[in-house]
Amino acid sequence: MNGAALMREAVLLGAACHLAGPADQVPAADAGWTARPGDRAELRDRMRDHERSDDPARVRLCDELGLPPQNYWLVMLCAAVERYPEAAAAVSLLAEDSRQQLPTPVVVARLLRGLLEVPFGEALAGALNGGQAHWLGLVEVIESAPGTPHSQHALRLVHTELVVAQDDPSALGGHPDLLVSTVRPAAATAFDVVRVRHGAYLLEHRGLLVLRGASRRGGRQFGCDLATHLGLPANLVTADEQLPPIAGLARLRGGLLVLDLHRLPTVTQSALARLGAVRGRLVVLVDEATDTGDLATYDVGSIGYPEASRVWAEHFGVDTARALAARFRVNTEEARIAVRDADDMRRATDPDPADPAAEGSAGPGNPTGPGNPTGAGNPAAADDVLADRIRALGARRMSRYVSTLPTSARLSDLVVPDELRRQLDEIVSWHRSSHRVAWAMDHERTDPLGTGLTCLFAGKSGTGKTFAARCLASELGLNLYRIDLSQVVSKYIGETEKALGQVFDEVEAGHGLLLFDEADALFGRRSEVKDAHDRYANIEAGYLLQRLESYDGVAILTTNLQGNIDGAFVRRLRFVLQFPAPDRDLRRALWERSLPGPQWRDDDLAIEVLADRFQLSGGAIHNIGLAAVHLAAATESGRVTAAHVVRATARELQKAGRPADAAAFGPLAGLVNGHRRPR
C-alpha cells in the first residue's frame, strides 16, 4: 500500500478517535488519543514498515531528496486529501473547522502524536510552514484568513505535484520544474586530469564549488569533466534570467548538478551562499568578474586546442580529432550533438542497411552507434556535413547581439590590388597554422597580444571591406557574425561588457568570424573624463582592450576613418589592411564582374569608357550592375545594353550628389536622359 492510501486510513482513524473524546473537555495537545488502541497500534506498525520499504515515492522523497519521515507523512497527507474526498472531510473534523479541508500543521501534529507517538511539539515544529516539504517545493502554504496563527495555515500540494498525486502518487517529487541537459560521462576528461582531480577534491570536501571564468563553454566542459572523474552524468541547469528555485535544484538527483549562472547580469555572494543549502555536491558556473568571497572557487579558462582534441577523440581517430580541434574548439555537449546530427543527415541521404553504426547505441566504451562514428575513415568523419552541423549549431546559439551574414563568395571573387590580396592570403595562412604555432612549436601562448587573430580593414565606403570579410569567412569555412551595435551598447552599467563577453565566448568555439562593421562606435578614442557617462564609456573601451587580448578567434574591424580608432586598439591588431579606391584596371575588372555573362548582354557596353570617366568604388559599380540587370529584365530580350548601364550609372551618380548630365558621360551622352531608350 502506498503512503497516500496509508494516510487516508490514518486521517479517518484519527477523526474517529478525535470524535470519541469527551465533548465537554479540551484535551492537552500532547495527550494523544485513548480510543481504539488496537487499531492505532496495527496502523502504526504498518506505517513504520512503510518507512523502511522500497516504495518508489518513499525512496524518492526520503532516500534521494532527504525528506524526514515526519515531512514525508505530511506530503502523503496532502496527497490523500486530493485523492480521497473522505480524507478531506476527516481533516475538517481534526481541524475543528468545517471550512478547512486542507491539512494544517496542527492536524499533522495531532495525527503524528496520536498514531506514531511523536511528541506534539516536535511534530508541530516540523510541520510549520510546510517544513522541508515546502523548502523542496512539494507543498505550498496558504493563509486561511488574516490574523490566523501559522499553525492554522493550510498546506497544499503545489500544482505540478497535484497532477502527479492524482495519476501516480509514486512519482511525487520526481518532476522539478527545470530544464535539465544531461551529459553522460566521457571516456576521458578534456581538461588536464591533474586540474580536474584538484577541482574534484575541493568539491568533495566543500560540497559547493564555484567555477569562475570568462568562457561559459570552458566552465560547462570543466563541470562535465568533474562528473566524468566522479563516474557520474552531469546534470546541467542553465539560469537565463534569474536564479532557479533552490527547491527545484535540491530535487535533482542521479548525477552531478552543474548550475550555469553565466547569463545572469549579476551573481551576489549571498546568492551563492544560499546555494550551499542544496543537499549533495553542486558546481556553479559564474563570470570571471563575480566576487565569490570565501567559497571554494576554481578559475577555468577557455577550451584550447589540447582540450578540443580530447573532446573529438571520443568520436574519431587521432588524426581526425586533431584536424577538427584545429578548426572547432567545442565542448563535449556540442561535439556529441554535431556528430549525431551529421550522422543522421548522412543516413537520411544515403541509408546503408549494412552499416554497423546503424545498430547499437553509442557510448564511451562502444565506438559504434548513432552519434559515435569510428575512426578517420568513417564516412561521417571530419567532412563537410559535420562542419555544416557545427556552424549551424553555433549560429543557433548566437544571441540577439549578432546577425549571420551569407558567406558564399571566395577570395578569388574579390577585386583588390595584388599586395592587398597577398595580405588576405597571409591572414588565411595565419589562422590555419595558429594551432601548430601555439601547441606544437610552443610559441604563441606567451605572446602578450594573446592567441587570437584581430585585423583592421580601413578605407572609404564601398572599397570592399565588408565583402572581403565575407570572402575570408568563406575561405576559412566559418560563419560570419556581424555585431549589432544597437543591441550591444547598453545604457545600463556593465551590460555592454556582459553582451560582448557572450559574443566573444561563442565565436571562440571556432564556428564563426566576428565582424565589427563601422567599428568606430566601439573602438573609438577614449575621451577625457568629464562626467559619469565618460567614465563608464572608458570602462567599456578598457574591457574591449582586455577581451581582445584574451580572444582566441578571428575578428575583423572595419572603419572608414582609421584616425578615429583608439591607438591602444591599433597596437593590438595583427593586420592593418588599407583598402584603396580602385584604379582604372581594377574598375574595369569590377565592371566585368558586376554584369551578367555574354549570353545576357550586348557585345559593346562601353565598359572602357565608364571605367575611364568615373572613379567609382566597387560598391557603387556593384549597385550599377544590379540596377542595369533589373532594367534589362523588364525588356522583351532581357539583354543588358549600354543604355541600361548608362541609366543605372546616372542614377548612382545622382545618389552620391555628383554630376549626371549628358556632359558627364562624354561619348555616351546620347544615351542619357532618354535620347536613346533601352531596347
Core attributes:
48% helix, six-stranded mixed sheet, 5 domains, ATP hydrolysis activity, 29 helices, 679 residues, ATPase_AAA_core, alpha/beta
Question: Care to describe what's here?
Answer:
With about 675 residues, this protein is an alpha/beta fold. The protein folds into five domains: about 5-170, no CATH class; about 180-300, Rossmann fold (3-Layer(aba) Sandwich); about 305-395, no CATH class; about 405-580, Rossmann fold (3-Layer(aba) Sandwich), CATH 3.40.50; about 585-675. Helix content is about 50%, strand content about 10%. The protein contains 29 helices and 14 strands. Strands 3-5-6-7-4-8 form a six-stranded mixed β-sheet. A six-stranded mixed β-sheet has the order 9-11-12-13-10-14, with helices on both faces. It has a two-stranded antiparallel sheet with strand order 1-2. Helix 12 links the parallel strand 5 (about 235-240) and strand 6 (about 255-260). The model is unreliable at about 355-380, about 525-535 and about 675-679 (pLDDT under 50). One of its GO terms (molecular function) is ATP binding. InterPro entries: AAA+_ATPase, ATPase_AAA_core, P-loop_NTPase.
Summarize the structure.
With 679 residues, this protein is α/β, with parallel strands linked by helices. It has 29 helices and 14 strands.
